[in-house]
Here is the input.
Amino acid sequence: MSPAGALPSAEGRTISAIREMAPGTWLDLGAPRADPKWGKARGRAWTSKMAFSRALGGAFLFGEGIHGWVNPSTGRYMDDLWLYDVNGHRWVALYPGTDTRSPPALQVTRDGFEGIAPDRPIPIATMVHGYEMTAWDPVRQLFFSMPNHHVYFRKHLPSVAAFRRQNAQRLNTTAASPWIFDPWNRKWHRLKTATPSPASGFGDVLMFLPSRNKLFFYRLGRVSFYDPQNNSWRQVSTRGPLPPFGIDPTACHDPRRDRIYIGGGNYPIAKGDNALWIYDVKTDTWVDPKPAGSPAGNHYGTNVAVMTCDPRTDSVYLFRHKGGAPGLYIYDTKKNAWRPRPVPLPDFWNKRMGANGFYHPGLGVHFIHTANDSRDNGRIIVYRPDR
Here is the structure.
């Protein structure tokens, strides 16, 4: 049985401690237990999102940290995929990453992707960082990620670089699904799509939308939807003012209103008083809500903050750990206003570390994994919102 087959695991003592948390308090759970074979997941810069799966009882961590980093003890490239098992407070290595000491012999798959067999695509160095570019599909029980290719892998995987150069004309880059991981069978998939796929790059946004049963993908003013059932892409014509920032925003989905909050991007940073935008899913319309207040400036991208939506409190939570004034900034969706004063981050939150996070709807709390880039010194911090 695969590690995913044992998930979700039985509730451990940390769950009891979380349930006992008073509103408006923080809890330091410490370091998660290591995977027995592959150790602990490492910190990932520019990877604020951990896609949560209720079915698995945990959240995924995917994307590289230090550019081109290789684990010196295992020889594995940092394209590994992890699950933080909430109930067990442990790391589960779902995919250990590419073996740089014995790289795979690659071939072009039937659908035009690099792989190890005609029907076995394999994702090698597909994400320089995770950004907001991963998602969990609860209907099909699959993990998705959009690629943002780079050149940093070449030093440690020269044979892969040579394969890509030699097969540049054969590899499929224009009619491709996202990368798909089946955690129950621990297999990667990628499919040739019936319609052209959008370009993807650094700092895009991917998320599953239950109302459409599709994946929303945003890149530099363009919105596309991927339909896993029909394996097709469709770019939509949107209305309203486009977001005024560039790449690398943080984002979350509000299930009550079926809207996406997205903001704080870079290159360029938004000018003026506001960098929080809304995408109305029902009407495909961008909205500048012009909220009162500010979360300490207009830059709160994926290496600066973690953004989560909380339907219980009807609020957006922005855990700003770098830049401006660190703190938890709370946007009240009913009042269309940021709270005038942030909630201080706890003393045990090391502000020199990066952060990745997610909201757990069953427990009604927010999880933050904080660790140095590509280091296995991570800890889990939990916040229970006040009323």
